[in-house]
Amino acid sequence: MMRWICVFMLLWFFFGGALNFVPLMSSVDEILGVLSYAYVFLYWRKLSLYEKRIVKLCCILLILGLVGNFLHGYLTALFPIGLDFLQCTKVFIVFIAANHLLGNWPEQKKKSVLKKLLAIAGVYISIAFFCAIVSLFVNIGMSADVRMGFRCFKFYYGNAGGFANSLYLVLLIFMAYSRFVKKTQLMKFLIFMALVSWALTFRSRGFLFILMFLLFYYLIVVRKKELKIKVWSVVLLVSFSLYVTADQFDVYFNNENMPRAILLKGGVDTMCRFFPIGAGFGTYGTDVAVKYYSNLYRELHFDERWGFAPDNPKFALDSYWPAIFGQFGVIGVFVFVGLLFCWFKLVRKIGKGNVYSSQASLFIIVTQIFSSIATSTFFSPLTVGLVFFIPLLKNIDIQRKNELGDPQNV
What we know:
Elements: H1 2-15, H2 28-42, H3 49-72, H4 78-101, H5 107-137, E1 143-147, E2 150-153, H6 160-180, H7 185-199, H8 204-222, H9 231-244, H10 246-253, H11 259-273, H12 287-291, H13 295-299, H14 321-351, H15 355-371, H16 381-389, H17 396-403
Antiparallel strand pairs: 1-2
Helix pairs in contact: 1-5, 1-16, 2-4, 3-4, 3-14, 4-16, 5-6, 5-7, 6-7, 6-15, 6-16, 8-15, 11-14, 14-15
């Protein structure tokens, strides 16, 4: 059953956005989140130390958000509050459940499901690559805009960023297949097609992440180096990243009329105003804040801005940290930093013991955390799909320790 759930999840990841008219298709991530919470509480004793810390931090966030809701009164209806709590934490809880349900599979079972996933991902990236090359020369309706004189490829997504998000999972599957099945020349060519297709989106972040992927591949897979996260390496990586994306960072955050700058300023102002706990669930920067249009937005006059108004709110939820600032305040920032730290530790453990798993896990950690600066990464349904598959990278030796009853090593 889980094998076919994996196939469904991959198809949903690639095509779910185009099938929102199908009943429940747009709620797959929430349904998975609810089921994952049920698993976590039913099998609490099986959770590792860091997994339990994630659940505890989610509970702290629940209390913190509820206090903000009922103290400030912007949103007091229980259903939207619960929905927002689920959307704010689903990525971490789905990851925990998948870590047990997929991560502890025997190697042969992983090989079997990876062959199915590779067939889908391989066809997907082959078609995308062909369309990306054609789109350079002919307008086939798959370009978002024009940069440097070239059409920016977006495939069938609404924007180039949507297509780029799909490539994290494509590359993860290719690396997992190399780890558990075999490394082939075809696999190298598929990775090449994915990176070229990504480059043809002509996004600064895309170029940066391609360079990261190649650097990690060279150091970890080719040179067999075990990279450790140190302060100096983080500073160097962040500095280089800011240098590469400086032009786009300046456009989005230093222009007070840009949506992300507006959200950031409003989030910081709200955090200071409601120090130290924030305004509560569903009040700022999230999907629920838009669906149940937040009274805080009206107070900030967002309803008078293009792209933020109730009838056109496409920019009103394109954020992660500004939403945390506004909804959960200073304390919430520490809670989410704790969640990301625990998630980071678990993903790095999954990657230990094999160069392909190590490279893929480090790449996912760096790209997702970096992406959260500019987008609503850890609230996104696509990130739920991505973290669902991360445990397929899990080292077989760690699995055996779990089977022997040592959950603290998960």
